[in-house]
């Protein structure tokens, strides 16, 4: 028995909007990064699901998903390095305090 298409879209939509809410509502830079990753994973689910249902024999959606995961991993490594440098300079990782770096 195959899971209906709409269930994947519901899960992906909930994940994406939870990520949007976390990105807007949080002030901690690590929480913002996690929310961004949640949004990217929701997009990856959509790539795989649309590929599976629209073009069952093709693999393009899965390759896009693999590339998106690789890009997300690189983006996370760079973002964590930036957050560590910010913490070393101002001893805080809240996004409200980033204007202190201008001085």
Description:
- The mean pLDDT is 86.
- The chain has 103 residues and is mainly alpha-helical.
- Helix content is 76%, strand content 0%.
- The protein has helices at residues 5-25, 29-54, 60-90.
- It is built from 3 helices and no strands.
- Helix 1 runs antiparallel to helix 2 (29-54) and helix 2 runs antiparallel to helix 3 (60-90).
- The chain has a single domain, classed as Helix Hairpins (Orthogonal Bundle).
The count of β-strands is 0
Helicity range: over 70%
Poorly predicted regions are none
State mean pLDDT (0 to 100 scale): 86
| Total separate domains | 1
**Cα end-to-end separation:** 61 Å
The helix/strand series, from N terminus to C terminus, equals HHH
Please name the CATH topology.
Helix Hairpins
Strand content: under 5%
CATH hierarchy: architecture: Orthogonal Bundle
What overall form do the CA principal axes indicate?
Answer: elongated
List the helices and strands and how they pair.
Layout: H1 5-25, H2 29-54, H3 60-90
Helix pairs in contact: 1-2, 2-3
